[in-house]
Amino acid sequence: xxxxxxxxxxxxxxxxxxxxxxxxxxxxxxxxxxxxxxxxxxxxxxxxxxxxxxxxxxxxxxxxxxxxxxxxxxxxxxxxxxxxxxxxxxxxxxxxxxxxxxxxxxxxxxxxxxxxxxxxxxxxxxxxxxxxxxxxxxxxxxxxxxxxxxxxxxxxxxxxxxxxxxxxxxxxxxxxxxxxxxxxxxxxxxxxxxxxxxxxxxxxxxxxxxxxxxxxxxxxxxxxxxxxxxxxxxxxxxxxxxxxxxxxxxxxxxxxxxxxxxxxxxxxxxxxxxxxx
Length: 277
What we know:
Elements: H1 2-15, E1 54-55, E2 58-59, H2 93-106, E3 109-112, E4 116-119, E5 122-124, E6 127-134, E7 137-146, H3 147-169, E8 175-182, E9 205-213, E10 218-220, H4 230-242, E11 248-250, E12 262-265, E13 275-276
Parallel strand pairs: 7-8, 11-13
Antiparallel strand pairs: 1-2, 3-6, 4-5, 6-7, 8-9, 9-10, 9-12, 11-12
Helix pairs in contact: 2-3, 3-4
């Protein structure tokens, strides 16, 4: 009878939806022990702000986050930021003397000039004034620049531009002048009112507007990407070879500011990176 009564009670509980207690005793929360303290929250390391904290109006980054490194030769920096003007860079007297000797050996015509310091980062420590880049190849008008710039220009003219002209226009063709639009000038890039200082302001750059040939013809620099003539081929050839001598070459296809000349400069970049467009 006792067994039957127990079964009947169990059936009633199941039908009513009541839940049976778990097997074993129900765990009871452990009472606090007098004098025992809770586990303390870890304090942030000295000098490391907690994530999300504001410092000078900016949210702190997560501790341990690494700063992204700039790629060598990156040219996508924001040029709207004002340039931090540095003093005119002093040049090695020994390197300058070697450069002058190399330029003279190629037949360049030049004179030393006084140190230029126009303020705002503009200037050349050891400038030269160039009148002819090679024997029989004038620089018109004469221009002021660093020797390194003039030497690169002389080598490019002798080893690349002159052979390209002979191939394009006949074996007896000579280049008699490089017509420049700008050498040293104290200004920002692309003559902007804000942004970075131009390499022209350091004596590192020269803009070539045209070539004069021995027969009197002038080959002007202009957009020629779709020019199927030998003149177009000549311009594309000298532009491409320019990157062998200069670290920056900008032609009419690079942007609107260079539609009428080749910009050539010898700026030094990380790991010898060159920018040629």
